[in-house]
Design goal:
This protein is an alpha+beta fold. The protein folds into 4 domains: 152 residues, Calcium-transporting ATPase, cytoplasmic transduction domain A; 280 residues, Calcium-transporting ATPase, transmembrane domain (Up-down Bundle), CATH 1.20.1110; 160 residues, Rossmann fold; 195 residues, 3-Layer(aba) Sandwich (Calcium-transporting ATPase, cytoplasmic domain N). It is 47% helix and 17% strand. It contains 31 helices and 28 strands. The strands form 4 sheets. Strands 10, 11, 12, 13, 16, 17, 18, 19, 20, 21 and 22 form an 11-stranded mixed sheet that branches. Helix 11 crosses helix 12 and helix 11 runs antiparallel to helix 24. The two termini are 60 Å apart.
Length: 899
């Protein structure tokens, strides 16, 4: 239910903004005080929805009892108590408690780690509090907060607009309407339906353009989105595709092993063995056979991978993305900021009769304008002066501060460069706006690749235009040649300008056309009968580390494709300089791309092989992703703007830029790059591959160990031999060798050469036919070594039956421990490999050895497990027999092709 203050504001859209602000006792120029914020938060709580509720420790504990293994153990303990087997029953209860605690604490740590990482990717909000702008987590917003809005922002609470400058919002998540909605500040009728409340912004929507200020009126569950979420049941726990495949694998193993267990237990009873003993053995084998720990260990490995990626400046929004990264084989990356430095500098103005060079780099406000090497006064050149001023007017970049001739500019890199060029000439955008106030803006349209602003003048209206040279030229009918002088642009002149554009673009410069016109009304069309001023050339140098990152991708079988809105010839130059191509390559222009349903086989081959796509619109990015996905590829796509959000959603892995990316892009993406670098993507892909390989390794390890336990009992029963291992011993091994070595395998740093292999098919199962053959071989070797040791201990050593069982138990335990070293890749170095050099492996082996020695030398534990002390000869047999599988496998691993 809405709180009391919100009940008074039942329809904030119908109230004058001044009245609304008075209700919250807030001055929009100052914002709330700390005292007001504390009072509001106490009354309204955090700005959160139900679906983001934190998973409680109690819920995690309950989940430990929601599997068949625990209930089998409980049934076994109950039967033991019923038939007076108090020691066995108590031992099983201890096993239940240990299994539950291990599962609980490992899963709790994984869940809390993932929750902490998700907090890192949550959306922030810019507010004004106590007179100062502040960046705060969105969940700290309270009613009455003054929120500062800009294009690309995610709206994080329901807001009433009090200031709006050309604001448009995408409300499709709430209303279903895909068209952006224009906003204003005037009050509207109380009965206005949700989709028509033009002075409101709603939680969960996004700002596609414009800027302004709003006051928070509803937060959390009281927002429109919150009221909808209340109708939806609590979201179920997320399961990644990998976890689902592991569950399916475990499900298949259940039926196979239950059949074997049934045969073992029935055969044992028919041959005169105690039915209670055989029942306990069957339960123990069931526990050993079903790898119930797989999902937990997989979750821990994935969460660890998320932490590693976060440490390398890659924040993962979805756990499933960690796995998908490893299968990525196509990376579509933009040019500016990813392959280049994203630090634009205006280096040249090309005018009608001459070229003017501009000195000064980066954010420096010092520089000269040079004609033929000599400095000139901008005021003395009317065309250059007008070009610089048009670049300033047709821009939204703002100078926040200037210190030591270095400017702090906020805005798009291209517009920052134009603003800095203006400062070098002695002009400030704010000063120009005083004489030429802006009355209207036509935002940059990716389809037509131009932007315009309208400015009031004494005689009418000045229209300032900038955009792609081809488009500006096609819209211009004249070119400015001097003060109050213009010439008509004929086809020859237009071709001449296009040739200049092509020549400069081939040198890696980004070109913008600048034009203007003067009209009687600011309601005129912006892109007709323009007067061309010239071109401005911008330099954005390639990043130094990009070349090696692209080489790493190519070695890993990942096709890197540049997708840019820039000119084809500029893209070609940058592609060559960063090593994306080594010679002239086919450049596909956006206009050539076809929707997937219109492709011919020839089109498919061309578009999937092309490395450069130029003049690409947001819609064409979607088509490109669909084309690669149609070809069976796993596609990663980078983006930073509002218009990139659909492509980031469409891609298998959407990658948003953390530094220059909008909130909309970051929210739509699966991964956020805090440093905006391509090399970070390579590190993330490597980590994805390492994680999957680690998971596959511990699956092979667990199943081969479990199958060996089943085979030992199965063969002994079939051959009518005494049981070489007792039920509680099986349960003990299941706790020791199944948990710690598996966790250690999941923490492996990975093969250094993992990025030299082709990406795996993301549809391939966790275990393929070759892996099942490995498991069969591993488990057979361990089984034979255990049965051989048991036979020798029983027949040729002076040991009683209990001591012989101790020998087989220890042989099985140590064989499984040494078996973890068999998980190295075939053909890798015997000692210099990621398994042998993993400190967690040796820590797990050491801990398990201590536990096994405790099982022998601690009398209470030894009595429960029915183990006896053995002499030096028997220990020699244990160590020798347990090392046989390791030695054989290591010999085989040392030969053959690396896998």
């Amino acid at each position: 239910m809405p709180n009391k203050s919100q009940q008074k504001i039942s329809a904030p859209w119908a109230i004058e903004s001044e009245t609304l602000l008075d209700t919250f006792s807030v001055d929009p120029d100052l914002g709330l005080t700390r005292k007001q914020v504390r009072k509001q938060r106490k009354q309204h709580g955090r700005n959160r929805l139900r679906t983001k509720s934190r998973k409680s420790a109690l819920a995690i504990l309950k989940e430990q009892f929601q599997n068949i293994i625990i209930w089998l153990l409980i049934a076994s303990a109950a039967l033991s108590f019923i038939f007076g087997e108090w020691v066995d029953g108590t031992a099983v209860v201890v096993v239940i408690l240990l299994n539950t605690l291990i599962g609980f604490f490992t899963e709790l740590r994984a869940v809390r780690s993932m929750e902490a990482l998700r907090e890192m990717t949550q959306v922030d909000a810019r507010v004004r509090r106590e007179g100062e702008p502040q960046q705060i987590p969105a969940d700290q917003l309270v009613p009455g907060d003054i929120v500062l809005l800009d294009s690309g922002d995610i709206i994080t609470a329901d807001l009433r607009l009090i200031e709006a400058s050309k604001i448009q919002a995408n409300e499709s998540t709430l209303t279903g309407e895909s068209e952006a909605v224009s906003k204003q500040t005037d009050p509207i009728d109380e009965k206005t339906p949700l989709a028509e409340r033009r002075n409101m912004l709603f939680k969960g929507t996004s700002l596609t353009r414009g800027s302004g200020t709003g006051v928070v009126v509803f937060t959390g569950r009281d927002t429109e989105l919150g009221q909808i979420s209340e109708l939806v049941a609590e979201a179920k726990q997320e399961h990644t595709p990998l976890e689902k495949r592991l569950d399916q694998l475990a499900g298949k193993l259940v039926w196979v092993t239950l059949g074997i267990i049934l045969i073992v237990s029935m055969t044992g009873v028919l041959r005169g063995r105690e039915w209670l003993l055989m029942l306990e053995t069957a339960v123990a084998l069931a526990v050993a056979a079903i790898p119930e720990g797989l999902p937990i260990v997989a979750t821990i490995a994935l969460a660890r991978g998320m932490r590693r990626m976060a440490a390398n400046h890659a924040l993962i929004n979805q756990l499933a993305s960690v796995e998908t990264l490893g299968g990525t084989n196509v990376l579509c990356t933009d040019k500016t900021g990813t392959l280049t430095e994203n630090q634009m500098t205006a280096v040249k103005y090309v005018l009608h009769s001459r070229e003017i060079a501009v000195s000064g780099e980066g954010l420096s406000t010092q520089g000269e304008f040079l004609a033929d090497g000599d400095a000139i006064e901008v005021e003395q050149d009317p065309v250059l002066k007008r070009a610089i001023q048009i670049g300033l007017l047709c821009s939204n970049a703002q100078v926040k501060d200037i210190q030591d001739h270095q400017a702090d500019v906020v805005g798009e890199p291209v517009e920052e460069a134009l603003v800095l060029a203006g400062l070098k000439a002695g002009y400030r955008r704010e000063d120009l706006h005083e004489d030429l106030p802006e009355s209207r803006e036509v935002a940059f349209d990716p389809e037509i690749k131009m932007m315009a602003t309208f400015h009031d003048t004494e005689s009418g209206c000045l229209v300032a235009v900038k955009g792609a040279p081809e488009q500006v030229l096609s819209s211009a009918s004249q070119v400015m040649t001097g003060r109050d002088q213009q010439e008509e642009i004929d086809s020859a002149a237009r071709d001449h300008w296009l040739e200049i554009n092509k020549e400069l673009a081939s040198k890696g410069l980004r070109l913008l056309g600048l034009a203007y016109k003067e009209t009687d009304s600011c309601d005129d069309q912006p892109y007709q009968d323009l007067i061309l001023l010239g071109l401005v050339a911008l330099l954005d140098p390639p990043r130094e580390e990009v070349k090696s990152a692209i080489q790493d991708c190519q070695a890993a079988g990942i096709q890197v494709t540049m997708v840019t809105g820039d000119q084809a010839i500029t893209a070609l130059h940058i592609a060559r300089s960063v090593g994306l191509i080594d010679q002239d390559s086919d450049v596909v222009r956006g206009e050539e791309l076809k929707p997937p349903d219109e492709l011919t086989e020839k089109d498919l081959q061309r578009f999937t092989a092309a490395r450069i796509f130029a003049r690409v619109s947001p819609k064409q990015k979607l088509d490109l992703i669909s084309i690669h996905q149609l070809n069976g590829s796993i596609v990663a796509m980078t983006g930073d703007g509002v218009n990139d959000a659909p492509a980031l959603k469409k891609a298998d892995i959407g990658i948003a830029m953390g530094q220059r990316g909008t909130q909309v892009a970051r929210q739509a993406a699966d991964m956020v790059l805090e440093d905006d670098t391509l090399s970070t993507i390579v590190l993330a892909v490597r980590q994805g591959r390492v994680i999957f390989n680690n998971i596959r390794r511990f699956v092979i390890y667990l199943i081969s160990c479990n199958v060996s336990e089943i085979l030992v009992v199965f063969l002994a029963t079939m051959l009518n031999l005494p049981l070489p291992i007792r039920p509680l011993q099986i349960l003990f091994l299941n706790l020791v060798t199944d948990v710690f070595p598996a966790l250690a395998l999941g923490a492996s740093e990975g093969d250094p050469g993992v990025m030299k292999h082709q990406p795996r098919d993301p549809r391939e199962p966790v275990l393929m036919n070759g892996h099942w053959l490995k498991i069969s071989g591993y488990s057979s070797l361990i089984t034979l070594s255990v049965l051989s040791a048991y036979g020798i201990a029983s027949k040729w050593l002076p040991l009683n039956p209990a001591q012989a069982v101790t020998v087989s138990f220890l042989t099985l335990a140590f064989a499984q421990l040494w078996h973890v070293l068999n998980m190295r890749d075939r053909g890798s170095h015997l000692l210099k490999n990621d398994i042998f050099q993993n400190p967690y492996i040796w820590g797990a082996i050491g801990l398990c050895i201590l536990l096994l020695l405790g099982a022998i030398f601690l009398p209470p534990l030894a009595r429960v497990l029915e183990l006896r002390r053995i002499g030096g000869l028997a220990w020699g047999l244990v160590l020798g027999s347990s090392l046989v599988p390791l030695i054989i496998v290591q010999i085989l691993k040392g030969s053959g092709k690396k896998n």
